[in-house]
Structure formats: structure tokens, C-alpha cells
Write a structure and sequence with these properties.
491 residues; 13 helices
């Protein structure tokens, strides 16, 4: 079985996939850039604070300095900030209570730079004879102006208490490390991530819906073309697909289709005209030939060979006349010109009369009937008799020895349903699909001994459709065949 695919669905799905890939990529990049921007801003503030922390302080000074870091970083009270100061002799000068024990900043510190030698007292007396002019000791320990300031180093560490951004600097006097918890940044990034997770599916739904609508609008011309194709019948070949405001991509397709319809209409009219004209032209000579054969047959000597030959010729002429009559009827049906002489037809009475013919023609068959009373329709009596006779004749011809025929007729609302079934050999799938085709005779092994040219069922269905009904081959179990004729009551 061929798996059908929807072009519209594939367009919507492909648009959603492409948009989803773009949005996910944009979201990941945006999230990373925002995170890096926040961390870079934090590093800049850490560097500024580390530069301030590069001079000696007392423990109380370091504690006061730590208290001022919260305002300097502009963080809320939930953001933890810790500081660690190690002196030049390797002893811990100050350590915050929030400093995690598993924070390792060893790799961030470098060797302390060497201080210049202290000036000699003689030099001090010469340059500053008055004691009050000499600067205090810490000021004399400051590095000279031409020395480059120490470069801070940064690292992100994961500990049991959370994730920290650590900055460290090594000065001639101490090694200072400041750690700021990244929990606040992680919370902000989680909020941004949740926004992306909520908004991206919504945007994808909008994209898929928009693509579905756009694809449907784009396929409007195809739907119009499909509608016209569905309405193309033998009597509707004059239809054309209007171009109007059609998209330029479909104009050529519609033009080609309209040209095809035009060629089909011209060819069909020529073929229909030919069959109709040929049937009309053949009716007169066949009628004359049949009359002459009948008159000559009456004049021939009874029981002679000439009479036998004339009788055979007359049978063939009558058979040819029947074929011509059927072809003329089909040509009228194809052109939509089948004229119906509508009268009230008693289908129940017709079927009861035909049952008597079945008993005479096929006394070896079992007849089963279930015919409702007073089944009446408006239609052409002669044509409806032709349909019923064809169905019953086929049920007799294609029956099995000592088989059966069943006729069911009953009303169904505004329609009348007549089913004719019989015992028969199984009809192949290919024959079932072509059983209403003209001149189709089916399996030769099944039809070899049955007379006919394969026009009866075609004509019967055209007559049923001309009355507003239909004739169908029912799906039945193996070993039987059933046809159902449906006629509207007010046809």
C-alpha cells in the first residue's frame, strides 16, 4: 500500500524544524553571551577591588574592607562574598567566615615581587634633616612609580557550598583572594533559560501554524485544479480552470491543464459524433436488409438449405441491429442527450412478470425473492425494463448448473433498491474493476459459451445514472455475484 504524504504538513514541519534549530541556536548563544557578560562585569569589579586591596591593613581593616565589598559589587544580601589574605611570610592575615574550605587558589598566586632596598640613614638625614619631613614606614614601602601593578588572575570553582568566581592578586606585601558566589548569576541565568524554554515552543507553534496557513493559501490553485478535475466527466469536459489572480508559479500548470481539457473535449466530441452518426447511418440499411431477408425467407422453400442460410443471415442482421441500437444509446448518454419518457413505473409488477420468464427460461434454477409491494418510481419504462432484463439475463447466463437466483427489492427512504444475485464462479479482481467497461467480456474461460459483446452492463449503468440512480457490483463472498440497482423515487 502506497503511503500518502502531505505536502502542506511537510512544509509546516520543515518550517518548524528550521525555525526551531535557529531559535535553539540563538537561545544557546544568547544565554552564553549574557552569562559571559555578567561574569566579565564581575571580573572587572573584582580587579578593581583587588587593586584596592594591595596595601597592608590590620585585621580590623580587612574586616571593614570586606563589609564594604557588598556595596561595591552591588549585590543583594543573599550573595556571598569571601576574602582570604596571606602575608608575605605565608601566614593567614585574614580569612572570612564564608570562605569555603575547599576553595583552592594556589594556582592563582604568583611569586611576590621584590621590594627595592631601604634607603640608608645617612641618605635620609641628607634628604630630610627634619624628622617630621620623613614619610611613615608604609609609605616608604610603596613600589616606585615605574613598576607595573600586579595582574589579577581569575578562576571559577565548584565547591560543596556552590559555584564561586575567584580573583587573586599577589603584591609585595600580601596575597589577596576575593571569592564571589555565582548563585545569584546562576539564578538569573535559570530565569532566562526558563523564558527561552517557554517562549521557543510557543514561537515554534506560531511558525508551524503560519507555515500551515501560508502553505494552504499557496495550494489554493491546486485545490481549484483538483475540484475541476473531480468534476470532469463525459458531459463536463467544457469546464476550464480560471487563471484570475493565480500565483505565477501555477499559471503554466493551469494553462497546460486547460489545453488538455480542450483537446479531450474536441476528441470526445469527434468520437461521440462519429459513433452517433455511424449508428444513424447504419440503422436504415440494416432495416432494409432485415426486411428483404424476412421477405425472401418467406418465399424460400420450407426446410431447404437456402431457407436455413437466410435464417442465419437474418439472425446476424438482427444482432447487428441490436449492437447499432446500443451504440446509439451510449453515444446519446455520453453526450448527455439520452431522452427519457417519464411515467410512473410499477417496479414490483415488472419484477413479478420477469419471474415468470425466469421459470420458463431456466427451470433448473432455484428462484428466491423478497419483493416489497407497490414499489413505484418516475422513469422511462422501456429503459428500466432493459436494465432489469439485462441483470436477470446475466444472472441466468453466468449461473452454475442447478444454481440459484435471488431478487430483493425494497424501499430505503427516498430511493428504491433492487438487488439481483446469483450463484456463479468467482470474478477476479481485475474483472471486477472493469466489469462496466464497454466491450469488456471478462475471463474467456468464464464467458466462452455466453453470447454478448460486453455492452449490456455499460448501457444499464448509463440508464440508471440518467435516472439519477446508479448500478454497482456488490462485494460478496466467493461463489456468488450480486448487482444493486438504486433509483430515486422521484426520478
Amino acid at each position: 500500500m502506497v503511503k500518502l504524504r502531505s505536502f502542506r504538513f511537510r512544509i509546516a514541519l520543515l518550517s518548524a524544524v528550521l525555525a526551531g534549530g535557529a531559535l535553539i541556536g540563538f537561545g544557546l548563544i544568547s544565554w552564553w553571551l549574557i552569562y559571559e557578560a555578567k561574569v566579565s562585569r564581575l571580573d572587572a569589579e573584582l580587579e578593581s577591588q583587588l587593586m584596592r586591596a594591595g596595601r597592608p591593613r590590620s585585621p580590623e581593616g580587612w574586616q571593614s574592607y570586606e563589609a564594604s565589598l557588598g556595596q561595591s559589587f552591588g549585590t543583594n544580601a543573599k550573595t556571598a562574598i569571601a576574602i582570604l589574605v596571606i602575608g608575605a611570610d605565608g601566614n593567614v592575615l585574614y580569612r572570612s567566615e564564608q570562605w569555603a574550605s575547599d576553595l583552592d587558589v594556589t594556582n592563582l598566586w604568583t611569586s611576590p615581587p621584590q621590594l627595592p632596598p631601604f634607603p640608608s640613614p645617612h641618605f635620609e638625614q641628607q634628604t630630610a634633616p627634619f624628622p617630621e619631613a620623613n614619610p611613615p614606614f608604609p609609605e616608604r614601602l610603596q613600589p616606585p612609580p615605574d613598576r607595573q601593578p600586579p595582574t589579577p588572575r581569575f578562576l571559577t570553582q565548584h565547591t560543596t557550598t556552590g559555584t564561586w568566581r575567584v580573583g587573586a592578586v599577589t603584591t609585595p606585601f600580601a596575597q589577596v583572594a576575593i571569592a564571589v558566589s555565582l548563585n545569584a548569576i546562576a539564578f538569573e541565568m535559570a530565569v532566562i533559560r526558563n523564558i527561552f524554554l517557554i517562549s521557543i515552543p510557543g514561537v515554534l507553534l506560531l511558525v508551524a501554524g503560519g507555515a500551515w496557513g501560508i502553505a494552504g493559501s499557496s495550494l489554493h490553485s491546486i485545490r481549484r485544479l483538483t475540484t475541476v478535475i473531480g468534476n470532469v466527466t463525459a458531459s463536463g469536459l467544457e469546464q476550464r480552470v480560471p487563471i484570475g489572480a493565480t500565483d505565477v508559479e501555477f499559471v503554466e500548470l493551469i494553462q497546460v491543464f486547460n489545453q488538455m481539457l480542450e483537446r479531450l473535449e474536441r476528441s470526445f466530441k469527434q468520437a461521440s459524433r462519429f459513433s452517433g452518426d455511424a449508428a444513424h447511418e447504419l440503422k436504415t440499411p440494416l432495416a432494409i436488409l432485415q426486411g428483404e431477408l424476412e421477405r425472401t425467407l418467406q418465399q424460400a422453400e420450407p426446410g431447404s438449405e437456402v431457407q436455413q442460410r437466410l435464417s442465419n443471415l437474418l439472425d446476424e442482421v438482427r444482432r447487428l441491429s441490436g449492437i447499432v441500437r446500443k451504440l446509439l444509446l451510449l453515444s446519446l448518454a455520453d453526450a448527455g442527450q439520452m431522452s427519457l419518457h417519464r411515467v410512473e413505473v410499477d417496479l414490483s409488477g415488472l419484477l413479478m412478470e420477469m419471474l415468470e420468464d425466469i421459470e420458463l427460461l431456466a427451470p433448473h434454477l432455484e428462484i428466491q425473492t423478497e419483493i416489497a409491494d407497490n414499489l413505484r418510481v418516475q422513469g422511462d419504462r422501456d429503459l428500466l425494463i432493459q436494465v432489469l432484463q439485462n441483470l436477470i439475463s446475466n444472472a441466468i447466463k453466468y449461473n452454475l448448473p442447478n444454481g440459484w437466483i435471488r431478487i430483493d427489492a425494497y424501499p430505503q427512504g427516498a430511493i428504491v433498491s433492487i438487488s439481483v444475485s446469483n450463484c456463479s464462479k468467482e470474478i477476479s479482481v481485475s474483472d471486477r474493476d472493469r466489469i462496466f467497461d464497454r466491450f469488456h467480456r471478462g475471463d474467456p474461460a468464464r464467458t466462452r459459451k455466453v453470447e454478448g459483446i460486453g455492452l449490456g452492463l455499460s448501457i444499464a449503468r448509463e440508464i440508471a445514472r440518467a435516472h439519477g440512480g446508479n448500478l454497482t457490483l456488490d462485494p460478496t463472498v466467493s461463489g456468488q455475484t450480486a448487482f444493486t440497482l438504486i433509483l430515486p423515487v422521484g426520478c
